[in-house]
Design brief:
The complex is a heterodimer of chains A (230) and B (558).
Chain A lengths: L13 E6 L3 H25 L7 H29 L12 H14 L15 H26 L1 H8 L4 H26 L8 H8 L1 E6 L1 H13 L4
Antiparallel strand pairs in A: 1-2
Helix pairs in contact in A: 1-2, 4-6
Chain B lengths: L10 H6 L57 H11 L3 H7 L1 H4 L2 E2 L6 E2 L16 H4 L24 H4 L29 H6 L6 H8 L43 E2 L2 E2 L27 H4 L9 H9 L5 H5 L10 E6 L13 E2 L2 E2 L5 E2 L2 E2 L3 E6 L5 E5 L3 E3 L13 E2 L1 E3 L9 E15 L4 E2 L12 H4 L2 H11 L9 E10 L13 H4 L21 H28 L8
Parallel strand pairs in B: 5-15, 13-17
Antiparallel strand pairs in B: 1-2, 3-4, 5-10, 6-9, 7-8, 9-10, 11-15, 12-14, 15-16, 15-17
The chains are: A mainly alpha (230), B alpha+beta (558).
Chain lengths: 230, 558
């Protein structure tokens, strides 16, 4: 260990373009986005909301997309705990009113966003609460009921004369409606950045320009030097 | 001639020209074949029909001394048959083809043609002279028939492989009807006897295609189009398909034939027999297994699961009466007996798919409606049918009255959703005693309806014959009978598509205990869900507009 690690470098904070969303996070986000879109389209087709997909095809698409999403979530859960990134979802409730006030009014009057993205804290209070509810309520309700639904062939016989199937279908449908609502708000919120496409670009490239402390800047510079060249 | 009204001489003349499409006379009950003439091409049996394990054979019956003939009648042929087939008579006598009597073990009801009242020609009892043409015996015309006389068994009707054998009514009807079948080629009994074999579709079809009084009338899935069916009509029976004889599925043991409508297996969970084992059932599963859909396929897995609750027939018989032969859907006895200039007549205002015209009115029977390519009616079925017998006190508050109620509920594990043909008929009944009635249709007397056309007299005679109380009043009661659909299995590509059930206007709409994606919804959950969707969209729109119109440059997040 060198001395440099013991005392933080001193200096003014600098604005730098740094990677906020790692490659895996972006892969996860976009593949999940595609899968959720496919699941919603095929799922609401099966539900009878629209008739854009033939029923049999919708069954296939919905089932295989669901299996793909389950696999993706298994990997992502693993990723969250090994990287400690799960802590990003711990909501800081005291920050909530300010963020809500901003989206309700401040954004219209040109007020500054009350939250500043930092290298360690990617999400504002509202975001972490929203994503937390996504990750622990909507998501699990959907995939757990979905897995039970998908495995109906193995419990169909036992379900005769019970409300098993409609109960599962109820939970799955209710959660799906919540999911669609969540996604709509989520997509709309991406247009509220510096420019309407700023957040989307960030989620594609992984890079955003944020303020770094001198210590963070030095750490990142060191990291960059140490990175193996491939 | 569609739309045309044809006056067909007298009823006598109408009956005179009744000749079956097949060589058999089952059609003689009247309807379908009424306009076939005897001038049709000489009948030939359909070759190569498969009859399961019994196919082949080791004897050439034309080489048997006992069959050299000559034979005066069918009964003499039977005597000859029994000299070798020593036990066959005893076996046949136990079968329902002989007894016409059946006690259902599940319901305890006494059924069989000897007992039931249906909603076609209503009752065979009391009309045996005509109806028992389809009895596998000789000469049953009244209660004096000896059911213990083996020589009265008709072997040929099932085993003739020349397609030249036919049957006549066992008694003369009314004078007007007594001249039936005149002019038919006499049967060469020796030739027929020397050319016997395993029953083909022509044999079984002679009666079973013509149930209810003519080709296709009764069942909706059994008619003469199955003799030479294209594969699209019936994969099993088509000569281009498996070319199955009926007995390939309706296997028999000692002349006891599996698969009677009186005792059905609604859900066969045993499926394929163990290797070398034999199963005496006529279920789809006994050949195809209980899980017949493609393995290692998601849809296959789902379809196998459907089989848990849906009979194979429900998807694999997309429509009934697809072969160009109509099936009767409505019959009104109340209009029977009308005359023009004191004579009976017929109208033919239905032209069926194969071009043949069918009666829409006939003095002896009343008015009819026909249908083809019909979507079946679907019901939960556990294999039990409860019949409204002659003993039943009828509750006419709920119409139509079910002649046979399909039993089964979604809560029963052995119940599945089955397709049925519904037959709607106004039948004569006793509105005071509230019972179905036996109607004496056929006979050479002054009470038989066919000839005298006095329904009170004919019902009184029918009821007297049965020793049943009759108030002296005849009304007409709307009834429905349910005919399970199980033949006319289409190629797999023509099976009912997912979306025909998984949709708002589902084929299965209205059935209790179903939950089907695409059809079933939770109404208020849907309302809430769509409101949330619309509300969110509206919120976004308002927010966007507000941002545009009130916009000062925002700094967003840093």
């Amino acid at each position: 260990m060198s001395d440099a690690t013991l005392t933080a470098p001193v200096g003014r904070p600098t604005k730098q373009t740094v990677m906020i969303y790692t490659r895996y996070e972006r892969f996860w986000h976009w593949s999940q986005a595609v899968l959720i879109f496919v699941l919603a389209m095929s799922g609401f087709g099966l539900h009878g909301t629209h008739g854009l997909v033939p029923f049999g095809l919708a069954v296939k698409v919905h089932s295989f997309a669901a299996i793909a999403l389950i696999v993706l979530w298994i990997f992502t859960t693993f990723w969250h705990f090994t990287t400690g990134q799960w802590r990003q979802y711990l909501p800081k409730l005291s920050g909530l009113p300010a963020v809500i006030r901003f989206y309700a009014w401040g954004i219209l009057t040109g007020a500054p966003h009350p939250y500043t993205k930092t290298l360690k804290r990617k999400q504002n209070a509202l975001q972490s609460l929203a994503y937390l509810s996504f990750m622990v309520i909507i998501g699990p309700a959907l995939w757990s009921s979905g897995i039970v639904y998908l495995t109906y062939p193995w419990w169909a016989h036992a379900a005769i004369g019970t409300i098993g199937l409609p109960a599962v279908a109820f939970i799955h449908t209710a959660a799906a409606f919540l999911m669609v609502t969540f996604v709509m708000i989520h997509v709309y919120m991406t247009t509220t950045g510096k420019t309407p496409t700023h957040y989307v670009k960030t989620m594609i490239t992984g890079y955003d320009t944020i303020e770094l402390t001198a210590a963070e800047a030095a750490y990142l510079a060191e990291e960059e030097r140490e990175k193996p060249r491939l | 001639m569609r739309g045309a009204t044809r006056i067909l001489a007298r009823v006598a003349a109408a009956l005179l020209i009744v000749v079956g499409t097949s060589a058999f006379s089952a059609a003689a009950e009247g309807e379908g074949a009424a306009h076939e003439t005897a001038a049709a091409a000489p009948p030939t049996p359909i070759a190569g029909q498969k009859s399961g394990a019994l196919s082949g054979g080791t004897a050439d019956h034309s080489k048997f001394k006992a069959l050299e003939g000559p034979f005066a009648d069918g009964s003499e042929v039977t005597k000859a048959c029994l000299t070798c087939h020593t036990e066959a008579g005893k076996h046949v006598m136990k079968s329902i083809h002989w007894t016409w009597d059946y006690t259902n073990p599940k319901t305890g009801q006494k059924l069989g043609k000897k007992n039931v009242i249906n909603n076609f020609c209503t009752n065979a009892k009391g009309n045996e002279g005509m109806c028992a043409q389809c009895h596998a015996g000789y000469g049953w015309k009244d209660d004096t028939f000896d059911f213990k006389d083996e020589t009265k068994i008709d072997c040929l009707v099932c085993h003739d492989r020349t397609a030249t054998y036919y049957k006549l009514p066992n008694s003369h009807g009314h004078d007007a009807c007594g001249v039936m079948f005149e002019g038919k080629e006499p049967i060469d009994f020796a030739k027929v006897a020397q050319h016997v074999g395993l029953p083909g579709r022509e044999n079984c079809g002679g009666c079973h295609f013509n149930g209810g009084g003519g080709d296709g009338v009764k069942h909706g899935d059994l008619d003469s189009s199955l003799l030479k069916a294209p594969k699209t009509l019936d994969v099993h029976m088509s000569p281009d398909g498996a070319n199955f004889a009926c007995t390939q599925c309706h296997v028999s043991d000692k002349h006891m034939i599996a698969g009677s409508r009186y005792d059905m297996v609604a859900k066969d969970e045993k499926g394929l027999p163990k290797p070398g084992e034999r199963r005496d059932v006529a279920s789809c599963e006994s050949c195809h297994g209980a899980k017949p859909h493609p393995k290692a396929s998601l849809i296959g897995l789902q379809l196998d699961t459907h089989a848990e609750r849906i009979a194979c027939q429900t998807c694999h018989i997309p429509k009934m009466a697809r072969g160009g032969v109509g099936t009767m859907t409505d019959w009104d006895w109340a209009t029977a007996g009308r005359m023009i200039d004191g004579k009976g007549y017929a109208e033919e205002n239905y032209t069926q798919g194969d071009g043949k015209e069918r009666h829409t009115y006939w003095t002896i029977k009343g008015s009819f409606k026909w249908g083809e390519n019909l979507t079946p009616t679907y019901k939960w079925f556990d294999g039990r049918m409860l019949y409204t017998t002659a003993d039943a006190k009828i509750d006419d508050a709920k119409l139509p009255v079910a002649i046979n109620s399909v039993m089964g509920s979604p809560d029963e594990k052995n119940a599945r959703i089955w397709p049925f043909k519904e037959m709607h008929t106004n039948v004569p009944w006793d509105p005071k005693n509230k019972t179905l009635v036996f109607n004496h249709l056929w006979g050479k007397d002054d009470t038989a309806f066919w000839g005298n056309f006095d329904i009170v007299k004919s019902v009184a005679a029918g009821m007297k014959l049965e020793n049943r109380p009759f108030s002296g009043e005849v009304g007409f009661l709307p009834t429905v009978s349910n005919w399970p659909i199980t033949h006319m299995v289409a190629p797999k590509g023509d099976a009912v598509k997912c979306a025909e059930c998984h949709t708002e206007k589902s084929r299965l709409a209205g059935l209790p205990g179903i939950w089907m994606p695409g059809h079933s919804t939770f109404r208020w959950l849907d309302i809430l869900g769509y409101l949330a969707f619309a509300g969110t969209l509206a919120g976004i729109l308002i927010h966007t507009l507000a941002r545009i119109f009130m916009r000062k440059p925002t700094t967003g997040e840093h």
